[in-house]
Amino acid sequence: MEKEKIRKQIEALVKRYLADSKIPKLPVRYGGSVHDSEEAVEMVNAILDGWWVHGKRTDQFEAAFSKYLGVKHSLFCNSGSSALIIGTDALKLPKGSEVISPALTFPTTINPAIRQGLKIVLVDSDIGTYNANIGQIEQAITKNTKAIILPHILGNTTDMKRLMQLVKEHDLLLLEDTCEAIGSQFKGKMLGTFGSVSTFSFYPSHHITAGGGGIASTNSDELHRNMLSLKSWGRRYSDKKHMPNQQIIRSDYIQQYTYDTLGYSLYGTEIQAALGLVQMRKVKKFEKIRERNFAALLKFFKGYSDLFILPRVLNGVRPVWFAFPLTITDPTRVSREPLMDFLYKKQIESRYILAGNISKQPAYADVEFSTAGSLEGADKMHQDAFFIGLYQGMDAEKLSYLKECFADFLGNA
Ligand SMILES: Cc1ncc(COP(=O)(O)O)c(C=O)c1O
After folding, report:
1. Pocket lining: 80 vs ligand 1, CB cutoff 6 Å
2. Which atom of ligand 1 is nearest to the CA of 84?
3. Where are the domains of the chain?
4. Could you give the CA distance from residue 347 to residue 359 in angstroms, rounded to a whole number?
């Protein structure tokens, strides 16, 4: 009883402590965690419960996410990058087989495939959509192609109907990196439900956060078992998921100490899952704010459509944008670095489009990529594109300030 009373007091104190916390007017960030005392109370409760790795909150978060996405299994791990490691490994692609992926990407989207000795065939992306060019994907398919690793860049995507036709026709596996596209849809179907495996990130700058953390989702029992094993030191799993909170009987014990895969240890914590669970309840609200902010920024930048290529969406795609991207049309009129410097001084965050053309990054100097055509779109975006924020922490005041600063800079362009 005394403990319950203290818990209530702690809860009241946490609520009081965070009662008037507000995102400051400056800086105007491109993303960041938006939370209140609800999240903090649940995280404190998770600490007080005293079971911090893989317990009931992880189970609940995985179930809530699977329901939201409409898939059978979701596995919570410590980052989106870790979800990509287990997702890629679980596909068990033969060494040397070809995997198609866009050049304009995020490093950890393809790093696990490179480490596995797969041959990455880079394809170009379209300026404005920032996503893989479907024509080049088609051109890139050979008899050695085994999979497509498709990041849905900035919440947008490619023509998923044609992509799925290619996947079927050529008997390929599809891994969707949905880390930037929670809630986005193609013709009413959630991104992250098209492939054999899909991955999500809850890093604080993403659509919802779990203070870091990631999820790998699948409809396949076998892939789920493989990923669970890879996440958990390589342990063997049968139909039972895991049993840390349950009584372990002798046969389970023998099974758990049989190692089926060359595993890792990639657990998220119960404290993260507690945060993620509360954020799940807010995901629809956050989506609406992102849509509203995207519309406001698009309207504003339409006034500068001679200077920038505006974000573009293909037929059937309903993105929940990660950020607001722009590509400079003519760098002799507007140059990216001075513009980004100006914004930085005004305390407005802007970023390059992820790693740009990944093959130009130093880490990949010795990686033997192949291509199926020119990467001119990726190169142009590597050079002249950037994004600014539209996340749920941006209100009308921040949007006005941002527009004012752009108008100021672009006035003489
Ligand atoms: C497209 C994409 N893939 C993967 C990741 C990796 O996610 P995490 O930061 O959770 O490891 C990110 C993270 O920003 C991303 O944007």
Report:
1. yes
2. 4
3. 1-413
4. 31
Q: Considering the domain 1-413 in this protein, what is its CATH number?
A: 3.40.640.10
Q: How far is CA 142 from the centre of its chain?
A: 29
Query: Residue 201 C-alpha to ligand 1 middle, in angstroms?
Result: 6
Catalytic residue set: 206
Where do the DSSP E strands lie in 222-264? none
Name the residue at shortest CA distance from atom 12 of ligand 1: 179
Residue 251: how many CB atoms within 10 A of its CB?
Answer: 9
Distance 81 CA to ligand 1 centre (A): 6
In a structure prediction context, what are the per-residue pLDDT tens digits for the chain, which is 413 residues long? 799 999 999 999 999 999 988 899 999 999 999 999 999 999 999 999 999 998 999 999 999 999 999 999 999 999 999 999 999 999 999 999 999 999 999 999 999 999 999 999 999 999 999 999 999 999 999 999 999 999 999 999 999 999 999 999 999 999 999 999 999 999 999 999 999 999 999 999 999 999 999 999 999 999 999 999 999 999 987 655 555 555 556 666 677 788 989 999 999 999 999 999 999 999 999 999 999 999 999 999 999 999 999 999 999 999 999 999 999 999 999 999 999 999 999 999 999 999 999 999 999 999 999 999 999 999 999 999 999 999 999 999 999 999 999 999 999 77
For ligand 1, atom 10, which residue shows the shortest CA distance? 80
Q: Count of CB atoms within 10 A of residue 380's CB?
A: 21
Write out the E strands in 112-163: 119-123, 145-151
